[in-house]
Fold this sequence. Notes:
Layout: E1 2-10, H1 14-27, E2 29-35, H2 50-58, E3 62-66, H3 75-83, H4 85-98, E4 105-108, H5 119-132, E5 139-142, E6 160-163, H6 173-184, E7 190-195, H7 207-219, E8 225-233, H8 238-244
Parallel strand pairs: 1-2, 1-8, 2-3, 3-4, 4-5, 5-6, 7-8
Helix pairs in contact: 6-7
Amino acid sequence: xxxxxxxxxxxxxxxxxxxxxxxxxxxxxxxxxxxxxxxxxxxxxxxxxxxxxxxxxxxxxxxxxxxxxxxxxxxxxxxxxxxxxxxxxxxxxxxxxxxxxxxxxxxxxxxxxxxxxxxxxxxxxxxxxxxxxxxxxxxxxxxxxxxxxxxxxxxxxxxxxxxxxxxxxxxxxxxxxxxxxxxxxxxxxxxxxxxxxxxxxxxxxxxxxxxxxxxxxxxxxxxxxxxxxxxxxxxxxxxxxxxxxxxxxxx
Length: 251
C-alpha cells in the first residue's frame, strides 16, 4: 500500500467507512485521515468515534486523526480555538494515552487554524505542552498557505510535519507545486491532509479540474509529499466524480 496517497473524510457511519476502506484496498492506498468536529461545537454526526480509528488501524492503515476540524477557516473559528485551548489539550492527551506507541496513529493539530499573526506560536505551544505531557505520536499541522506566514520549523523532539490544503477551484497546478517547493526548502517533508478538485464537492467536479489534480500528483510524485484526497462525509459524491472524470493515481 502507498502511504503517500490517501483519502480524507468524516466517516459518517460504519457502513460508509467500510466502503471507503474497500476503495483504499482496491487502489492500494495506505493513509486515511479521519476528521471530527471540535467538542465545543457539539460532536453531532461528525463526532470523535475511536471505533472508526481502531477499524482503520486494524486493517493496516496509517491513520491521521483530525479531532479539531475547524470550519469555516476564519478568524472567528481561530478565536474559538484559542478560547478552548484547554479542551484541545485534553482531547490530544486522551488520544495520546489510547494510541501510545502506535506509530501508524498520527494526530493533526487544529485543522484550518487561520490566524497568520500567531500561527506558529500557537502550534509550537501545543506541541511543547503535549510532548511534556507524554504524547509521543507524530503531529501534523496545516498552515495558512502561500507564504503567509513563511514556513518555519516547529521544534519537536518527535516530529511535526506541515502542509496546506489546496483545491483546484482556487489554485493552479503550478501554484500548488510552487507552494510545495517553498515548503521543502525549509522542511524535510510535507503532508497535505486535504487536496481536491473543488471546495464545492463532487457535484461541481469537471474533467478539467480532475485533470489538474492529476497534473499536481504527477508533478510531485517523486517528492517527500503526502496527499489525502478530500471526500467529505463518506465517499459519495466525491469519489464517483473522481472516477467519472479520470482520476489517475501515481503508481
